[in-house]
Amino acid sequence: MRFRHPDGSIVHLSYCTNVHPAETLDGVRAQLRDHCEPVRRRLGRDRLGIGLWLARDAARALINDPAELRALRAELDSRGLEVVTLNGFPYEGFGAGEVKYRVYRPDWTEPERLAHTTDLARLLAALLPDDVTEGTISTLPLAWRTPYATDPGAARTARTALTTLAQRLDALAELTGKSIRIGLEPEPGCTVETTADAIAPLTDVGHERIGICVDTCHLATSFEDPDTALDALTAAGIPVVKSQLSAALHAEHPHLPEVRTALAAFAEPRFLHQTRTRTAAGLRGTDDLDEAVAGGALPDSTPWRAHFHVPLHAPPAPPLTSTLPVLRTTLARLVGGPVPLTRHLEVETYTWQALPAELRPRTRTQLADGIAAELTLARDLLVDLGLKELP
Q1: What's the pTM value of the predicted model, to 2 decimals?
Q2: What are the angstrom distances between the C-alpha of 343 and each of 155, 187, 349?
Q3: Mean pLDDT score of the chain
Q4: CA–CA separation, 343 vs 11, rounded Å?
Q5: Most CB atoms closer than 10 Å: which of 124, 131, 261, 389?
Q6: From start to end of the chain, where are the E strands?
């Protein structure tokens, strides 16, 4: 979906396909047929943006066979789909029964991460619509905090990899005329947990094609104030290359038994749900929601937030809620001003099938309805901020 900002620039809205597990090229094609096109039809649009997730095997298949890449581009066109952004965070296995810490490997100290991200940049340059010259890719925020923090050479290795990537992106732009930018995506528990954590490493790299992806669930989980965060990034000259529109789980009164019970329903075996609370002594947290719910690991006199991407249009029932207000505030800062701070927005609720059983979509139709409802909410927010939806 495309929108014209009051300054005349085009802002793209998509939804991320990592909600549909697929490791192979055939799986990607099935996503387009079974999920993405039905969402577009529900929205009544001739064109829908998707934030494509290409696992390692699917990406390599496209890199190794230009004919397959051309065929994918043609299929996107025929189904009324367009790609301006990729989710390059998960490498493989994102649809496995247990993902947890595996999603953080390989990290930016390992050569596989650089190679995969280079492949994604080349693919995105070929998949961009003819009238679009800029693509974006979100990626791992360097590494999970351990063992990175105890390796004296890790920061240097990651910086070298990102510098090499920047050089490759420059060469790609010169060759294709398409500018691909990469955004580190701060996430709780990672080396770069917050936007503030991103400033030093990104300043060290010092390249306009390497910036940040602001995920509004992660921002909220770490109790970052959107205005403070974006002001600091702007002052440091760090570009917001894209933003993922998502909402975290919020518990206002975690000391109450009924709140603990409600939270426990969201503790599940597939993904990590890092949980945080803000105290007078600073941010406290656990790596997963079940650790927090069990008691003793976190103080419970202040609100808790958990890294669980809940549907934007359907916050959980009381006594829980979502951090949709943080999304609204962040979006207003990103695109509500005289000039957009980013032009690529991506709804990323990948946890539909990890929701408590009674909230999960049971059919493809229900899932498509839910994704369409999320995109409708995001569209309405953009229109309220003065952007005009384009055909």
Answers
A1: 0.97
A2: 30, 21, 19
A3: 97
A4: 4
A5: 124
A6: 2-4, 10-16, 48-52, 81-87, 134-139, 179-184, 210-215, 240-245, 247-251, 275-279, 282-286, 304-310, 320-322, 344-347, 388-389
